[in-house]
Design goal:
alpha+beta; 4-stranded antiparallel beta sheet; 6-stranded mixed beta sheet; single chain
Length: about 450
Amino acid sequence: MAKVIVMPKLGLTMTEGTLSKWLKHEGEAVKEGEPLFEVETDKLTNTIEASASGTLLKIAVPEGGEAPCMAPVAVIGEPGEDYASLLGGAEEKPAPEGDKPAAPPPPPPTPARAPGERVLATPAAKKLAKELGVDIALVPGTGPRGRVTEEDVKNFKSAPPPPTPAAPAEPGVKASPLAAKVAADIGLDLKDVPAKGRVMAADILAAVQKGGSAPAEEAPREEAVPMTGMRKAIARNMQNSHMTSPTVTFNLGIDMTELKRLREQLKSADIKVSYTDILVKVVAKALTEFPLLNCSVEDNKIIYKHYVNMGVAVALDNGLVVPNVRDADKKSLTEISAEVKDLAKKAREGGLPMDALTGGTFTITNLGMYGIESFSPIINQPEVAILGVNTMQDKVVVVDGEICVRPIMNLSLTADHRVVDGSVAAQFLQRVKALMEKPGLLLA
């Protein structure tokens, strides 16, 4: 029995999805559990497996099409099954194997006589024309005085449509009908084709091969490209964030000397961690001491979170996602590093589970690898703060009264001023600075 395949609901907030790619074609055999199509939501792309075995009878939503959750997107069953009722009756029955799609209707024939001119036809010809649905005024007559005969109607009905006339040659240029048509098809001016007398199709071919006489198509000056599901979600979320939170961004430089030394020590012990991994550990500890930076606002209430789910922004080709390291405040640096790498890999492969993208309490976003020195990150709602990580640069500074060169990294903290006052944000950043410049404090 045929079974309808629907757009899955991949999360509580998902209302629709974009069918980004079909992995099977109509008429192809499908096994239950086999990858069938890919769905792009506002957060990620998921591969959906077939929930039944059989033949993919119908694809109801094409690639790039959108559909509400639980709406039909395809039908799987046995060849020849009637599935129209499963799709609300909107679909036609599948055509029998071997049938070919109907050819497009021929262009209307040229009238055989002037408009209003009396049509002379035999009674048998008139009767046959009525039965065949032929306008007898269009049928050329071969009988006496141009009378239309029954044979004329039969021949007219079975005759192929007249060929499309070739494009006329340029005034003053003699060309064969085929040459004129070829020139018109490729947008070539016949005046530019060298020929001895009448321009022939071979002359056009020779001209194109020698100098590319056919004009190249000019690139469009503008192009409208529809937003993908992920891009639309990012635009919607960013606009909502700006409308929801009155924000202030705070910047502070961090001396990375000790943190660089720590990272090298770990590397020598074959423990490879990134600065982002270390920042997750540092910021998670600081958040436990400054709970206002780890809360959310709902219905004029401040919701304090007694856990730290640290979001780490991951850039993709078509947008970005923010998977969460859950309970980051309770995990070791090596556990955090392994989880960050795993989440980033799954994000780029489109294999993130939905629960990895929800429930975050704070976000870190890193643009340091692009040489950015300062920026104002946008809060990932419903969180109240986000930390931007900038590039590390060697700078001349004064330490203990002496001029020296130190690696300095700027941090950019954007906070929701509804709940996070400037003094609280500044104290939080100072604590993060202290932990980064003296990483031994992480053990305290």
